[in-house]
Amino acid sequence: MQEMQEASPSSSKKISAAAARAHTRRNRATTSNSSIKGRLNSISAMFVPIAMALTVGALGWVYQSLKPPPPKICGSPGGPPITSPRVQLRDGRHLAYKEMGVAKEEAKHKLVIIHGFDNSKDINLPIQQELIDELGICFLQYDRAGYGESDPNPKRSVKSEALDIEELADQLELGSKFYVIGVSMGSYPVWSCLKYIPNRLAGAALIVPVINYKWRSLPQSLIRDDYRRRLVQLTYLFSSYAPGLLHWWVSQQWLPSNSVLERNPVFFNPHDIEILKKIPGFPMLSKAKLAEREVFDTLRHDFLVGFGDWEFDPTELENPFPSNTSNFHIWQGYEDRVVPFQLQRFISGKLPWIRYHEVPEGGHLIVHYNGLGEAVLKSLLVGEDPLTLDHVKP
């Protein structure tokens, strides 16, 4: 027992020595690792800025290589000539326009026609001259900012569309009140008028109006699985953050031509395809046109505003017409494959003062169908709603 007790201190000392040696080795390893990490950190500190500079430089080179050529503004040196009358707005921009129908001084009704995406003031509405004369209609059709012979608006917004219309109407002396009709993408300027200049409106009509999937009121159950929503989101993403890449992509020669789009049953029903055989189609969406910077920029900016963040949700608007009367209309095709009728029904259901009209066999191009123009004008101007729209066809 005594020997065991005497051995204990010696054994304890040996263990402590071993532990000390192990601790020393660990300290050396830690010191060595710390030294390696320090050198690696120093190397990283040297090369990270270099790598970042190279990356930024590469991105800059890619952007410059993909950047479209300078725009050719209508009327500027090297740009297209001006052939239409124009007014100059307060900010210096010009809007081109044309007047049709009854002379403005003799007209009973003055209508501003607002064209859509890939269109202009030359949009052709199949309306019989006899009806125009009977109702005394003066049409004012204009090129929205950047389209046709109008100057682009670098500060384009939903609100600026309404202010352009108001200033144009004042300079051309349309009077204190006038009607507005918006077609497809030209619908968001009408919503803007309802929001920002409602006191100037005698009535309004939307024909196949686009739907902004960012509107807060739209229920997820209606838009969650909508493939059109995904297409809009993807296009919006590239238009916002990679416009040069998008421009390069859409102008590639190996991509299908716009004639393929015009025959695509994903977007157009059989009646629409018949219509596309009779009208110019979508000339601004051709590869040759999209290669022009001014065309590409106009379409991109219009798309970003129409499908971007608005200051309001249309379903929150109040009836702008007196005594709770209704003179606001939506005209929609039941077979529209660009804008689903379910969403139009939802919007009109949220605003009971909207008068909703649905063409049974109508697609997205119903504005070109025979009978639609007359139905829109009679409903808007004299309150004569058709009993049926079965007759509205190409």
TrEMBL record:
SUPFAM superfamilies: alpha/beta-Hydrolases. Pfam families: Abhydrolase_1. The chain crosses the membrane at residues 43-63. Keywords: Membrane, Transmembrane, Transmembrane helix. Residues 7-21 have a biased composition (Low complexity). InterPro entries: AB_hydrolase_1, AB_hydrolase_fold. The keyword Cell inner membrane does not apply. Residues 1-34 are annotated as: Disordered. Residues 111-368 form the AB hydrolase-1 domain. This is AB hydrolase-1 domain-containing protein. It comes from Linum tenue. The lineage of its organism: Eukaryota, Viridiplantae, Streptophyta, Embryophyta, Tracheophyta.
